[in-house]
Specification:
alpha/beta
Length: about 180
């Protein structure tokens, strides 16, 4: 009789663990479904393709004001880097190369450096001479507007102010065709 009780208790425990794991999987699936309905794919760096960039206002390191309205009428490549990200500094030269090519095709380029615990000097040295740079703290206006979830992240904003493409690689994200 004791063996039977032990078996029932063990089986009940396994059923409870299975129920908890199934509940966790269902919650994760619901979250993924909500994100895909909102235009964001799992693993995307932030705002989904087609999403309108929310209003923001920031200053570049040269004290030039940048707002969402500045994106109107032309394509803009925006790269997000973090001082705490070990992959950001090594990818900065590739972004600068992409920025040069994009600028030659009439695409504006803006880099955003999110300052964490480390100082942004190295990233600024790698980016500032080639592109306009905004430095902001964690939870800054641009990172919030683009809903950045990973660093480095890259967005192509179309002339209509919506996200035309996004990528985790320092290349021009596929998106809006070049103007004719």
């Amino acid at each position: 009789m004791a063996v039977l009780v032990a078996a029932v208790v063990l089986l009940g425990g396994l059923v409870l663990v299975n129920l908890l794991l199934t509940g966790a999987v269902i919650r994760r699936l619901r979250k993924t479904t909500e994100e895909s309905r909102a235009g964001r794919l799992p693993g995307s760096p932030g705002l989904g393709v087609g999403a309108e960039v929310p209003a923001f206002s920031v200053l570049t390191v040269t004290d030039t004001k940048v707002t969402r309205d500045d994106f109107a009428g032309e394509r803009t490549l925006v790269g997000f880097f973090s001082t705490d990200c070990p992959h950001c500094l090594p990818k900065a030269p590739a972004f600068v190369t992409t920025a040069r090519d994009a600028a030659a095709d009439g695409v504006r380029v803006l880099a955003v450096v999110v300052e964490g615990e480390r100082r942004p000097a190295e990233l600024l040295a790698a980016l500032a001479d080639e592109v306009s740079v905004v430095v902001e703290g964690e939870g800054g206006a641009m990172a919030d507007a683009f809903e950045v979830r990973a660093f480095p992240s890259f967005f192509l904003v179309g002339p209509d102010g919506t996200v035309a493409g996004s990528s985790l690689k320092p290349e021009l994200p596929a998106g809006a065709p070049a103007p004719a």
